[in-house]
Amino acid sequence: MSTELSGARALVTGATAGIGRTVAVRLAALGAEVVVHGRNARRGAEVVEEISAGGGRGRFVAADLSDPADVGRLAAAAGDVDVLVNNAGIYRFEDTPGTTAEMFDTHMAINTRAPLLLVGALAPAMAARGHGAIVSLSTMAATTPARGAGVYGASKAALESLTRVWADEFGSRGVRVNAVRSGPTRTPGTAEMGEDALRTVTRATVLGRPAEAAEIAEAVLFLVSPQASYITGTVLEARGGEPAIA
Ligand SMILES: NC(=O)c1ccc[n+]([C@@H]2O[C@H](COP(=O)([O-])OP(=O)(O)OC[C@H]3O[C@@H](n4cnc5c(N)ncnc54)[C@H](OP(=O)(O)O)[C@@H]3O)[C@@H](O)[C@H]2O)c1
């Protein structure tokens, strides 16, 4: 148990699985009190137990981020936070003719609107206290065309754009806002996609393998940490490198 973040409170969305779960457990191990968010109460309780077993402090708050009222309820239940990690996200794949209005709206609601509402609800209090760190999870599909991932990539490209706006809006009052652009990562979400789909995305990396959730979590933790004190408005690439045109 370290004390680097002792006295800080963090909200990690989508902390019941994958990258978010790892971030939540690591933040708690650094001394932060962590609000573990998700929808699945059983897995939320497991994460809180894992945090407690490591000597940390955590509590679970359930909310469906596709519902703006529930996002508001989550922000109120979290209270004043020093760290916000906008991690929860969905990724469904479809070509353009197959993309429905509902699929577009759901991606934008969960991947883009929910972070917007959380930053709007929580960043002003961070700014009033003169400090805070916000990190959002993006994807290589935000900048690299990925077949079938148009809507997913667009929802995260919008999130990256908002990241730069938030950095400007809150930066002079001590709040840093960044994003991590992740490559293919082994999580329950990508396990559902299947090994073949993960292998296909992995071909777009130089390292030639998917990341482990812990490797992406480390990039998030760096941006949250005091070591990143002069870094804001950036998108840190943790995508395994971009292969050259051959
Ligand atoms: N894995 C990758 O290869 C990869 C690559 C690039 C970027 N990313 C980004 O990294 C983030 C995490 O990805 P992951 O693969 O770790 O995710 P994952 O394993 O699919 O887990 C998703 C998490 O988000 C939560 N969530 C999903 N929909 C929600 C909703 N409507 N309301 C509230 N919570 C919701 C889930 O909570 P419940 O299950 O409790 O509902 C779960 O905790 C996402 O933003 C994703 O776009 C992932």
Protein architecture, described:
With 246 residues, the protein is an alpha/beta fold. The chain has one domain: Rossmann fold, CATH 3.40.50. Helices cover 46% and strands 18% of the residues. It has 8 helices and 9 strands. It has a 7-stranded parallel sheet with strand order 3-2-1-4-5-6-9, sandwiched between helices. Strands 7-8 form a two-stranded parallel ribbon. The radius of gyration is 17 Å and the shape is globular. The termini are far apart. The mean pLDDT is 97. Bound molecules: NADP nicotinamide-adenine-dinucleotide phosphate. Residues 14, 16-20, 38-40, 43, 64-66, 87-91, 110, 137, 139, 182, 184-185, 187-190 line the site of NADP nicotinamide-adenine-dinucleotide phosphate.
Short précis:
The chain has a single domain (9-238), classed as Rossmann fold, CATH 3.40.50. Helix content is 46%, strand content 18%.
CATH architecture: 3-Layer(aba) Sandwich
Principal-axis shape: globular
* Integer count of domains: 1
Order of helices and strands: EHEHEHEHEHEEHHEHE
Strand order of the largest sheet: 3-2-1-4-5-6-9
Number of separate strands: 9
**CATH homologous superfamily annotation:** NAD(P)-binding Rossmann-like Domain
Strand content: 15-25%
Overall SS class: alpha/beta
Rg measurement, Å: 17 Å
Q: What is the percent of helical residues? A: 40-55%
And the CATH topology?
A: Rossmann fold
Bound ligand species: NADP nicotinamide-adenine-dinucleotide phosphate
Ends: how far apart?
A: 47 Å
Uncertain runs are none
Number of helices: 8
Query: Please, what is the oligomeric state?
Result: single chain
Mean pLDDT rating: 97
Main sheet, how many strands, which sense, barrel? 7 strands, parallel
- CATH C-level class is Alpha Beta
